[in-house]
Design goal:
Number of strands: 8
Organism: Cricetulus griseus
Structural class: mainly beta
Radius of gyration: 17 Å
Shape: globular
Strand content: over 45%
Number of helices: 1
CATH architecture: Sandwich
Largest sheet: 5 strands, mixed
Strand order of the largest sheet: 1-2-8-7-4
CATH topology: Immunoglobulin-like
Keywords: Repeat
Protein name: Fibulin-1
Number of domains: 1
Length: 156
């Protein structure tokens, strides 16, 4: 399966076409599609790979964790053989500036990425987040989100 690689995106606004609507976050998602005869592809647990860009200010006052990213997974109301969803930050967490916690909201399992330490910009990092679906102690599939984080030197 080909992985999307952006390389260095600075400056961010030059990467997107003019017709693309720029907001605080933008996402590109790749979904795996295997040929039936490609056994390695079929066995690879990764189903989707997303790249998301988020831009943050330098927080002038940092007294508690800031919730910055929400990974949502729809779960059945009455789970029979429901997978346990495990969220993890596997790369890019320089200085342990971020963590991820699990919540349940409106029939969804939500992984909340929080900035837990102050970061003074300019700063750039790519967090690799994994959402693993575990059945019977085995990962049935995985979704990967690469979050490109830009922290401005300004508080506004």
């Amino acid at each position: 399966m080909p992985f999307l690689s952006w390389g260095k995106l600075h400056p961010f606004q030059n990467w997107f076409p003019n017709s693309f609507r720029q907001e605080k976050t933008d996402t590109v998602r790749c979904i795996k599609s295997c040929r039936p005869t490609d056994e390695a592809c079929v066995r690879d647990p990764v189903h989707t790979i997303s790249h998301t860009v988020i831009s943050l200010p330098t927080f002038r006052e940092f007294s508690r964790p800031e919730e910055i990213i929400f990974l949502r997974a729809v779960t059945p109301l009455y789970p029979a053989n429901q997978a346990d969803i495990i969220f993890d930050i596997t790369e890019g967490n320089l200085r342990d500036s971020f963590d991820i916690i699990k919540r349940y909201e409106d029939s969804m399992t939500v992984g909340v990425v929080r900035q837990v330490r102050p970061i003074v910009g300019p700063f750039y990092a790519v967090l690799r987040l994994e959402m693993n679906y575990v059945l019977g102690g085995v990962i049935s599939h995985r979704n990967v989100v690469n979050v490109h984080i830009f922290v401005s030197e300004f508080w506004f």
